[in-house]
Amino acid sequence: MRSSPNSPPNQILIALVVAVAVFTIGLIGITLGLRTLNQRTERPTPTIDVAQLPLTPLPRVTPSATAAPTLTPTVTVTPTPTATPTETATPLIEPTPTATVTPGPTPYAGPLRSNGGDYLAPRREGIAIDGALSDWNGIPDLQLPFVQSGAENYEGPSDFAATVRLAWDDRFFYFAAIITDDLHVQPLRGYDIFNGDSVELWLDADLAVDFADNSINDDDFQFGFSPGDFSGSGPEAVIWYPQRREEWNRQALIAAQPQNQGYTLEAAIPWALLGLQPVAGAAMGFAVNANDNDVPGAAAQQTILMHTSGMRWGQPTTFSTLRLQ
């Protein structure tokens, strides 16, 4: 018996066929999907040429000041090799230098001359070298009473007389002369002043060293002092010994003033010129003489007065002793 298409058995068969077909189609789809997935997995990564890519500039960023980051350094400790100790010399310790003390001048303790005419020169501050002698009050006089030469021309104290005074301070040795002269004549200058009215002073600056030496040497000084002629030429100081040097002459200060019968004169000799540092109790050899010329227009040493009778020119052993008080 022929069944109808719409009978139940036929419907079941159709449903089975459709189910098998759907299953088969799904299985085929799954298989194709897996194959496609495998192909994508094995595809090589394409190489991109960066140089061929278009470059888009980045927007400009205005930098803001920021503190630099603080880096914490990593300290690597390297072990210091232990050196083999070597024997070293112990350094010398230099002594601390001390200032050299230069001893100052000391009072004289050597031998003294015994020729008479010794003089004790007081210390006197502030003597003005002006020839007036007003600041010499109280300083003792040293007379020159002995005629050393020219006795035939000498007519007594009214004709020619001389008195000197000596003093000192830290800078100068001072010399003053009071001269009586009935006729003043001094036509000469420079080292020739002894042939006119003038005064001379000898100083032995190193008495002890050459005490027995009777010839002059480098520590023996001979000074000449001229008042000038009181009309055209002024007072002048010269040094004959130990050397004739104009710069030495200029170091001595001198002034003079005319008097009614004669003149007054004063001079200051720097201790530095003598090479001495003065101190109370120091001693020097010294001698003084005064020269007189009474012949106008002539160069003549007519009379010489001395402070001792035994003094001889250029012989230090015949000098007297001068001490600083």
SS-based class:
alpha+beta
Strand content: 25-35%
Helix count equals 3
Indicate the overall shape: rod-shaped
Strand tally is 13
Output the radius of gyration. 63 Å
Please mark out the parts with pLDDT under 50 across 5 or more consecutive residues, or reply none: 1-6, 36-95
Mean pLDDT across the residues is: 81
The arrangement of helices and strands along the chain is: HEEEEEEEEHEEHEEE
In whole angstroms, how far apart are the ends?
188 Å
Question: What is the CATH class of the domain at 131-324?
Answer: Mainly Beta
CATH T-level fold name of the domain at 131-324? Immunoglobulin-like
Tell me roughly what share of residues is in helical segments: 10-25%
In CATH terms, what is the architecture of the domain at 131-324? Sandwich
Largest sheet: 8 strands, mixed
Task: Describe the overall structure.
The chain is of the alpha+beta class. It has a domain at 131-324: Immunoglobulin-like (Sandwich), CATH 2.60.40. The protein has three helices and 13 strands. It has helices at 8-42, 246-251, 271-274; strands spanning 119-121, 142-143, 146-149, 160-168, 172-181, 198-204, 220-226, 236-241, 253-259, 262-270, 283-292, 303-306, 320-324. The strands form two sheets. Strands 1, 3, 6, 7, 8, 11, 12 and 13 form an eight-stranded mixed sheet that branches. The N and C termini lie far apart (188 Å). Residues 1-6 and 36-95 have low confidence and may be disordered.
